[in-house]
Amino acid sequence: MAKGASKKISSQNAASLTLLLRGFLLSNLIHILSYTPILASARYRHSGAYKWDVAKYVLSEGVALAIGLLMRDMASKGEDLNAEGLTALLWDVVFVTWFVHVGTALVWRRLWWLYAVIPLYGIFLAYSKVLVPFIFKGSDPLAGLFASLRGGKGPKQASTAQNKGNAAAAEPGLSKRQAKLQARADRGDPRVQRREMQRG
After folding, report:
1. Which of 24, 27, 37 shows the shortest CA–CA distance to 105?
2. 164, 186 Cβ separation under 8 angstroms
3. Is 57 exposed, middle or buried (0-12, 13-18, 19+ CB in 10 A)?
């Protein structure tokens, strides 16, 4: 059983490494061809922007190449390159690099700003996975701020309404539907009509 899983991982890794090699070759070929004298104007090639673009390309390609070599080393050790977590983030950096290189070559020279997505996503993950659960004890202050700006209920108001519904559900002898109707009636919902049963 373990050999079957190991063979499956090694075949998936081989396909991933082939994708990695082809992606690097294609994105670099397109980007380097955009700097040739035929495609780049003479005025652009002699400007400081050309040198700055080449420097950004070399730096970003160096980072992506280092990640690619790390992933090749991981595959040779038998680790799964399709795993979640840090490996998926490494793929994301490589894919964004390829997209930026092809985009700056074919579409717009200022597409380099797309690299800002990577640290912004890291900040979002740190906020949602570390700050909210551990520092703010589960209550998201930004969600309350945005909800109050829109005029809606904040998370504390919504949670108190939910707690009232849960309290009604906790009454013994009520089904789930009856508990929901009871909660609506307690809120004064006009759709709920109370009927008093007379026992005689």
Report:
1. 27
2. yes
3. buried
d(CA 86, CA 69): 15
Counting every residue, how long is the chain?
A: 200
Helix and strand numbers, DSSP H then E, in the chain:
8, 0
The two tokens of residue 82 are 């399709």
Distance CA 72, CA 76 (A): 6
Separation in Å, CA 23 to CA 10, 28, 95, 129:
20, 8, 9, 31
| CA 6 – CA 78 distance, rounded (Å) | 8
pLDDT tens digit sequence for 123-176: 888 888 888 888 888 787 777 777 777 776 555 554 554 555 555 445 567 788
Domain boundaries, the chain: 2-133, 141-187
pTM here is 0.56
Phi, psi of 17 (to 5 degrees): -70, -35
Distance in angstroms (rounded) separating the CA atoms of residues 127 and 133: 9
